[in-house]
Amino acid sequence: MALEDKKQPIVVKKIKKGGHGHHGGAWKVAYADFVTAMMAFFLLMWLLGSTTQEEKAAISDFFQNPSAIQGPGGASTSMIKLGGALEVPRGEGEPMRDAAATPAAETIAEIIEDKARLDELMQKLKEQIEASPMLKDFKEQLLLDITSEGLRIQIVDRENRPMFDLGSTRLKPYTRDILRELARTINEVPNHVSLTGHTDATPYSRERTDYSNWELSADRANAARREMTTAGMPNKKFGRVVGLADSVMFDKANPFNPVNRRISIVVLNKATERAIGLDDVTPAAPVSEPLPSEPAPAVPPVPSVVAPVITPAPSLSPAITPRQAPGRSGGTDVESAIEGVLGPPPGR
Prior knowledge:
Blueprint: H1 2-5, H2 26-50, H3 53-64, H4 108-131, H5 133-136, E1 142-146, E2 150-156, H6 173-186, E3 193-198, H7 213-230, E4 238-243, E5 262-268, H8 270-275, H9 333-342
Parallel strand pairs: 3-4
Antiparallel strand pairs: 1-2, 2-5, 3-5
């Protein structure tokens, strides 16, 4: 009983546990990467929604052709621009230039002005194609877009409607009309023009080894240049005329598609003009302004001939004065004159 009355002490055992250990900041890095990726995604969606179809085509063309060839319009001079490095000369005898000495970049105002000029030209060409009955018939063969080099106008072949005679550089009559119409409009802007000829993968001729699609494409580009010159475009406006044969296909899935045979006209922007060395060359005046005629050879002035005043020369012979011979009362005038010069005859 005494033992029951005796209260047994209750011992409470408390275990003090330590706090959670430091888990590190790995989750913060993962979360930051997630937020950055979401921001980049929404930024990309915003850019795609605010760009035009022409700008999307230019961006796509840039990523599809990142090498020296900048799309079907032509080729650039350098694959990688290295600041401070010496640029490889582009022609025989051309001195090497220091890339650091060239202008670093265009001003924002110049870029905006140049882009606005090309956009306005593109809109004007579209309106011209819709308004002209002749150009409207070839609307499907006239492709306009904006590339990294400038405004590109491609005249492509269609089935049963080629731009040139088969295997020849002779332009079709309607091709001449198209080139002349385009030349008059392009000539209104001061930008230089690049012409590029393209062919399909069909070999030119198996019998000829001295002439291929390379020569054919270059000759067709020059034929287009001559036709545009006939329409009034000055020769100084052409900054580049090249032939690329079948190296740059329009339809890569079908190399023999007639659409691969085309002429590409690029109205160059200022950046491309600098890249190919045209930054210090001013194009000739448009055809709307009268071209200065060649000065005629200077004719030397004819000295005026003044008639000399003729004064009677003094007589060298002594004056003959008739006189009467002494001791003679008469005689003829002739005898008197002789006597005046020689004197009286002896014995007289």
